[in-house]
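Sample pair:
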Amino acid sequence: QVQLVESGGGLVQAGGSLRLSCAASGRTSSMYAMGWFRQAPGKEREFVTQIVWSGASTYYADFVKGRFTISRDKSKNTMYLQMNSLKPEDTAVYYCAVRSQGTGVFGSWGQGTQVTVSS
C-alpha cells in the first residue's frame, strides 16, 4: 500500500498560480504512475493529469493543457502540479492518486487539498 499526502492548496485570484505537492510513502517501489484528480462541489471526480513514474511520460485532460504542468522528483517520492492561469472553474478539491504496477486503476488516494480561485 502507498500512502499519499497532498499540500499546497489555497485561495488565489483568477489568473494566479499555485503549486500542489503529493508526497508518497510505503510501497513506493510498486508505483507505475501518479495522477491528479479533482472534484468540484456537486460534480463527479474528474481526471486532470498523470505521469508515469519511471519514464516521466505525461497525459493531460484537455481543459488544463497549456496551463498545468505535472512533474515528479523520484529522489523525494514526490509529485507536483504547477497550476498557472487559474480560472474560477478550477475551484475544486484536488486529489493525488497512485496506480500500482500490474493494475489498471488508481488504487491509492490522498486526502485532498482545496483549491479556490476567486473571480
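DSSP finds no helices and eleven strands in the chain.
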